[in-house]
Structures are given as C-alpha cells and as structure tokens.
Amino acid sequence: GQQVMQIPQYQHVQEGEDFTTYCNSSTTLSNIQWYKQRPGGHPVFLIQLVKSGEVKKQKRLTFQFGEAKKNSSLHITATQTTDVGTYFCAGSMDSNYQLIWGAGTKLIIKP
Amino acid sequence: EAQVTQNPRYLITVTGKKLTVTCSQNMNHEYMSWYRQDPGLGLRQIYYSMNVEVTDKGDVPEGYKVSRKEKRNFPLILESPSPNQTSLYFCASSPRTGRLYEQYFGPGTRLTVT
C-alpha cells in the first residue's frame, strides 16, 4: 500500500548540534504535514507544505518539500533540550483525504 | 479552551470485556479520527469520520467500531478486546477533511489488555 518512509528512526546529538529527518514517498503527495510529539505527550502540528520546492522556516526549524513532491525534510539548527521528542511527517495523496504517517524520528540529546 | 478530550486516560482490562473510549472536541470540527500508536510503527489510522453519521475505515479497523451521532463526539468501541490491541490510542479532529488541515490531538489513552 501507500507508504511514507521516514529516516532515521533515532538520532542522538549533542546539544548545539544540528538534526535532520527525512521523509520519502513512492507516490506524489498533494501536501505534507509535520508534527512533534514530546515524551509522554500527543502529536502537535508544526507546519504544512503544499507547493513543489517549498521551503518554510520557524526560528531554528527549516522544512522543505521536494520538487517532485515525493520527499520532505525537517532540519533543526543548534538543537536545544526543548527540541527533544519524536518528529513525524504525514502526507496525503490527491486521491483521498487520509494522511499517511511516517514512523517518526526520535531526537535524543546526549547528556 | 479549544481542546480534544479523551477518557479514560489509562485502562487495564481483560480479554473479551467490552470497552468504550470516549472522545469529544469543542471546536465544531467536522473531521474526527482515531489512531493507535505502537513503538516503531508511528501512527496508524483506525477509523475516521468526515461528518455526523459518516464513518470510514482507516488502515487497521479490525476489532474496532466507531459511531458519530453528534458532531462533537466520536467514541471508539472494542467489542471483544484482545492483547494485540494493547496500545496508545489518540483521537484527533480537524476543521475539514484531513487533507489540507492540521489535526488536533487528544492527550491519548493507554490501553492494556491482559
């Protein structure tokens, strides 16, 4: 079936280092959303990308949507302890209204 | 305060004992959905509803039922729970059908079936 692959599953970084997570779809997406889930919490919406090649920034977070609308990335510059959590992408196809979720990337800050 | 509420937050039950997890939203959202979250598998959609009296299966509907008799409520029913339904469950709502609008999640219900 339709899948959105997200890598890596985990990423350990020192505070201050950068973090990136990638999502790839085998089919063209109409849009992609990104969510953050803090430990013990629920997913919280971060942003939505709709246009081919779109880049959006939120402070230290940069979101990209590929030209072919099959991949997306989230990059965090100079991670802080408040960035800890799992980041999910979720894409939808033109043919339906369901979101297809990536498995998430867990950001872990090394002590 | 705009929110999605779920009850109970934690539940331990035994195989075969029917249970209902309630979900309510106060944002007048049309779209509601249930997900289960298991380690390494992300969020998998169980059922969704685009409006009152309209429900549809998601990716993993087996063993679950839902109803949408009122706009604000979307209960999840497990008629005969089994251990493989032990999971973390999230209810979510969205102003419109899910494609172009963000989803607002409830706090989650952790279910253990022994």
Which helices and strands appear, and what pairs or packs with what?
The complex is a heterodimer of chains A (111) and B (114).
Chain A: E1 4-7, E2 10-14, E3 19-25, E4 31-37, E5 44-49, E6 55-58, E7 61-65, E8 71-76, E9 85-92, E10 100-101, E11 105-110
Parallel strand pairs in A: 2-11
Antiparallel strand pairs in A: 1-3, 3-8, 4-5, 4-9, 6-7, 7-8, 9-10, 9-11
Chain B: E1 4-7, E2 10-13, E3 19-25, E4 31-38, E5 42-51, E6 54-57, E7 65-66, E8 76-78, E9 87-94, E10 104-105, E11 109-113
Parallel strand pairs in B: 2-11
Antiparallel strand pairs in B: 1-3, 3-8, 4-5, 4-9, 5-6, 7-8, 9-10, 9-11
Protein model, in words:
The complex is a heterodimer of chains A (111) and B (114). With 111 residues, chain A is mainly beta. Chain A is built from no helices and 11 strands. Chain A has strands at residues 4-7, 10-14, 19-25, 31-37, 44-49, 55-58, 61-65, 71-76, 85-92, 100-101, 105-110. Chain A starts with a strand and ends with a strand. The relative contact order of chain A is 0.33. Chain B is mostly beta strands and 114 residues long. Chain B has strands at 4-7, 10-13, 19-25, 31-38, 42-51, 54-57, 65-66, 76-78, 87-94, 104-105, 109-113. The relative contact order of chain B is 0.33. The chains are: A mainly beta (111), B mainly beta (114). Chains A and B meet through strand 5 and strand 9 of A and strand 5 and strand 10 of B.
According to DSSP, the number of beta strands of chain B is 11
Number of helices of chain B: 0
Poorly predicted sequence stretches spanning 5 or more consecutive residues of chain A: none
Largest interface: A-B, 24 and 23 residues
Distance between the termini of chain B: 36 Å
Helix content of chain B: under 10%
Radius of gyration over C-alpha positions of chain A, nearest whole angstrom:
13 Å
Helices of chain A, by number, come to 0
Question: Percent of residues of chain A in beta strands?
Answer: over 45%
What about the largest sheet of chain A?
Answer: 6 strands, mixed
Per DSSP, what share of the residues of chain B sits in E-state strands of 2 or more residues? Answer: over 45%
